[in-house]
Design goal:
This protein is of the alpha+beta class. 35% of the residues lie in helices and 17% in strands. It is built from 17 helices and 15 strands. It has helices spanning 16-22, 30-43, 73-80, 102-108, 132-138, 154-157, 182-202, 204-208, 262-268, 273-276, 333-361, 395-401, 408-420, 424-433, 435-439, 449-464, 469-477, and strands at 48-54, 61-66, 113-119, 126-131, 162-168, 213-216, 219-220, 235-242, 247-253, 278-283, 286-292, 306-312, 363-364, 376-380, 386-390. A 7-stranded mixed beta sheet has the order 4-3-5-2-1-6-7. A hairpin with a 2-residue loop joins strand 10 (278-283) and strand 11 (286-292). Helix 1 (16-22) runs antiparallel to helix 5 (132-138), helix 2 packs across helix 7 (182-202) and helix 11 (333-361) runs antiparallel to helix 14. The longest helix is centred in the last third of the chain and has 29 residues, at 333-361.
């Protein structure tokens, strides 16, 4: 067999400008980019991490400072070198990195000038800088011993050890915006509000256990637990270990919204529950992926209370196809069947929360074993769809309808009763269980005698008020439900 080393070869290093600009296209946003930098801080055993930013228009900047172990010169240069680590190397269990690209790719996705300054205990500050414009101009891999302003080192200087990552020339975030551009400033500040929300979720287990504190412009971030493991929070219905105990799965079902106290609704983020259902994959307690059913199930309003925690170690990165951004993952073949089983079980339990509530609000009229009298009832058709109607046997309605004279206040009582008891949850539940049935409903409705009589009454009333026939007909055809029956004109004369 021929040895490849016997053949003529050439060294073909990538062009500096082409390669370094390619690193800008990995698909980070501001939230995921800052989270990636914080991963490095946690791996460096930091106790405190400070995210700071300042709006200055095109001269705006962002810095992430930590009190971790810091780096010596060789380690700093290596950290600034693209692809300096082999992703196949064994890592410490606490290491949140893998590819040796996160610092560079996340930073370049947001800025054109990346400076890292660091110091170890009893040593002076070291700094290195990538300036993409300079690399593009020279075409060389020139890592500079440079920082634009020494004031950026003030926080680092008072620490015994630590590191600061500085982003300047934020072309992707602010571009050439003028400092007085209020619209651009608003977008800038909104982005950092999203950063706070993202970090409070992604690192919530570190924050809860007080392994680290994270600050944004001097304000400490509070953890946000998506499983609501508090006194009125989520119910743990299952806890299993898979793949030789290397994967831990915990299945949670959140309570019905009505069970959450008003002062907790904001913290629960109930308005986002639909998007937050699904699997939550953690690697070394750092959240990688959340609110995703991993292609195993579809999102459904009926199961929005279902959330499943999956814990894996960094030894499973390849099996789970963890990407550079730590934002995508795919379960290994070994656990896929178990995740489907646990997912079905959790979704079933979550569905019962809404099924129970729906049944309390409205009953299928085929069920005769209850004496409960709802305002609304439903008839289930052969195709699984429901027709909803008002229950005339309801005591309040029956009493009013049997009166010889119906007063205005009686009509108001009926309308208020019907409006306040509209079975929204039951309608959502029934649609979630059988969405196709709604799509199969006939678009054309039959014109009933009661609708004709009501239209005639309105027609005569309009004419008595002095409205012409033509105008009266046009007005009636602009009123629901008459607008659905153009043929009703034939009955108006």
């Amino acid at each position: 067999m021929n040895k490849l080393s016997d053949f003529i070869s050439e060294e073909t290093p990538p062009k500096a400008s082409a390669m370094i600009n390619t690193f800008r296209a990995f698909g980070y946003n501001l939230q995921t980019a800052i989270a990636d930098i914080i991963d490095n801080s946690i791996s460096a055993k930091s106790s405190n991490i400070w995210v700071d930013y300042e709006w200055r228009g095109s001269e705006s900047w962002v810095s992430i400072t930590d009190d971790g172990t810091g780096m010596d010169k060789g380690t700093l240069v290596s950290a600034m070198t693209p692809g300096s680590k082999d992703p196949n190397e064994d890592r410490e269990l606490s290491d949140l990195g893998r590819f040796g690209l996160g610092l560079k790719t996340s930073s370049f996705s947001q800025c054109k000038t990346l400076t890292v300054a660091t110091k170890r205990k009893d040593y002076s500050v070291l700094k290195r800088c990538w300036d993409l414009d300079f690399v593009n101009d020279t075409g060389r891999w020139s890592l500079l011993d440079y920082i634009s302003n020494e004031t950026y080192l003030e926080k680092l200087n008072v620490l015994d050890n630590g590191t600061v990552v500085l982003w300047e020339n934020l072309d992707r975030l602010v571009g050439n915006s003028h400092i007085e551009n209020e619209a651009a400033r608003k977008v800038f500040l909104e982005e950092f509000f999203a950063v706070e929300e993202h970090l409070s979720l992604v690192f919530h287990r570190y924050l809860e256990k007080k392994k680290v504190k994270i600050w944004i412009n001097g304000l400490q971030i509070k953890p946000w637990d998506p499983f609501m493991k508090d006194s009125e929070g989520g119910q743990l219905i299952c806890n299993e270990y898979l793949d030789n105990d290397s994967v831990n799965v915990k299945c949670y079902v959140l309570p019905h919204i009505s069970k959450i106290s008003k002062d907790k609704l904001g913290d629960a983020k109930t308005e986002k529950w639909y998007g937050l259902q699904g699997f939550y994959i953690y690697r070394n307690e750092r959240l990688l992926l959340f609110g995703d059913w991993l292609g195993l199930f579809n999102k459904n309003e009926h199961y929005k209370n279902a959330r499943i925690l999956i814990d894996i170690s960094n030894k499973l990165d390849h099996e789970w196809k963890i990407d550079i951004k730590k934002a995508t993952a795919s379960p290994s073949v070994k656990v896929r069947k178990d995740l489907i089983r646990l997912g079905k079980m959790t979704r079933l339990a979550a569905g019962k929360v809404y099924r129970f509530r729906g049944n309390q609000i409205m009953l299928d009229d085929s069920i005769k074993s209850f004496s409960f009298q709802p305002i609304w009832k439903a008839t289930k058709k052969r195709d699984g769809a429901f027709d909803y109607y008002i229950n005339e046997d309801h005591p309040v309605l029956e009493r009013i309808m049997t009166k010889d004279v119906v007063e205005r206040k009686d009509i108001r009582t009926i309308l208020k009763l019907i409006g306040e008891t509209t079975p929204v949850e039951a309608i959502i539940q029934n649609y979630s269980e059988n969405p196709e049935s709604v799509e199969r409903r006939k678009e054309e409705k039959e014109l009933e005698q009661g609708t004709i009589q009501l239209a005639r009454l309105m027609f005569e009333s309009l004419k008595k008020s002095g409205v012409s026939n033509d105008i009266a007909v046009k007005q009636i055809l602009n009123i629901e439900p008459f607008n659905e029956f153009p043929q009703i004109i034939e009955y108006l004369n």
